[in-house]
Amino acid sequence: MNRMMYIFCMLIWGLNFIAVKIQGTDASLEISLLYRSAIAFCLFLGLLFFQKKTVKVKNGDWLTLIGFGFCNFAISYLLLYYGTILATSALVTLIFSMKVVTTPILIGLFLKKKIDLKIYIGGALGILSVIVILIPELDTINADFMTGALLAIIGTLITSLGDVFSLYNSEKNINPVLANTIGMFSAVVFLLIFSTISGQKFVIPTTISYWIGLLYLAILASFVAWLFYLNLVKNIGASESSYMVAGFPAIGGIASVCIGESKLSLYLIFGIVLAVLGAYIALSKSEKEA
User: What is the Cβ-side half-sphere exposure of residue 149, based on CA atoms within 13 angstroms?
Assistant: First the structure.
């Protein structure tokens, strides 16, 4: 069962940005993300009621729960959505996989935890992988592509900041389903206000590809995969569960080639290998942990 959940999460999250690309822009990215968050929130709220857990949150913990929602479900997703549309899903997936490096660094900075040398080694390989993949694109890279890559980097950093909030909430023994419910609700409120202020049109797209992408992201990626991941953390541990991130670049890269978005090349293959190796090193256990 653990193996099935592990493979499911790795595949679903590894294909996240392919789904964003398939979903397209029939509705604005803000509205699409709002729909995704609203569906996921309803699912988590239903699960919370089904569990019949008493909702108890200390006053000081509300801010970290809201911060978790803003960073992990709203702001970072929005930036990564734009990055995927402007650049390529393969590149965004590869950049996003570097959260295995940026998250420990931010945790070390904010929660005063030691940062191992392996994190920096993994980060160096991750940066090198991005450079390698960009080499054949140097002649054709435009402003939109570079903007997309930059937004993906910022989105990944904000996701890592959300992971800091998530760890803090976990150390406070806050029910993870409750944390996700409050976090997703915070994202819905933020996106609703932001979409209204920025003048986005609340349209209901009619294309099948849009709804396939939306339901994939809302139900499979934002709800089912999260539940499986929470069970994996409980069953096999957080470190072991995080190893799936190492597979994201390969899954995203292969899928990008399959849909004709990226061309198969030695640069892409070598870049993916470097990204996977960097993630593996960053996530590997040190001798003290083993």
Answer: 15
Report which of 80, 23, 24, 35 is spatially closest to residue 202, judged by C-alpha positions. Answer: 35
Distance separating alpha carbons of residues 52 and 14, to the nearest angstrom: 32
Alpha-carbon distances, residue 14 vs 9, 61, 86 (angstroms): 8, 31, 19
Joined together, the tokens standing for residue 115 give 């940062």
Q: Render pLDDT for 12-34 as a digit per residue (tens, 0 to 9).
A: 999 999 999 999 999 999 999 99
DSSP string, 59-99: GGGHHHHHHHHIIIIIIHHHHHHHHHHHS-HHHHHHHHTTH
Separation between Cα atoms, residue 1 and residue 23, nearest integer Å: 31
Side chain identity, residue 28: S
As a whole number of angstroms, the distance between CA 76 and CA 168 comes to 19
What is the b/e burial string over 25-62, where b = at least 16 CB atoms within 10 angstroms of the residue's CB?
ebbbbbbbbbbbbbbbbbbbbebbeeeeeeeebeeebe
C-beta atoms surrounding 125 within 10 Å = 21
Residue type, 75: I
What are the 10-residue block averages of pLDDT along the chain, 290 residues in total? 89 93 94 97 94 75 94 96 92 89 89 83 87 79 91 95 90 89 96 96 95 96 91 75 81 89 88 88 64
Chain length of the chain: 290
Helix, strand, coil percentages (3-state) for the chain, rounded to 5, are 80, 0, 20
